[in-house]
Amino acid sequence: MSYDAIKDFKAHFVQESSIKSWNAEQVQKAEGMVYLKKGGKMFWDYQSPTPQQIISDGRQLWFYEPEDKQVMVTTVGEGLQSQVSADLLNGKALLIGCPKLDDGQAYLEKLTAMLRLNEIKSLTVAHMEVPCCSGLIQIAKRAIVDSGKEVALTTVRIGIQGDVK
User: What's 66's domain CATH number?
Assistant: First the structure.
């Protein structure tokens, strides 16, 4: 099934976060269900360790904590901490990779197949300004060539302070 044919999906998720302090590291684990629909609509239903929901209609985000009977509402841009994140992600598919630590060949093969099997007209590579992240651009360029498709490539470099360069 192509990405264009998918209108929505749901999945069980497990999220692990490392919290480091000056003398210790703690791993927090959360899990639940996520429901996504094109157009920026999403519903994250955290079931453990503490129930909470994050809901978006593509414009606003609602953070609901049933235990506190409290809801916080914000715009998608503010909720994602930056308009850059909102602009890059809203209504788009997302792939995440690290060419330094992961298997770049596997990324190339997967992205090539995605481009070849779908009607993708443009690809945006957002990367940090550190040298190793520019490898994502090379992978994207090669995947476009190998796919045999005409795909417009845009690159966005994110500075170490979070600014767009």
Answer: 2.50.20.10
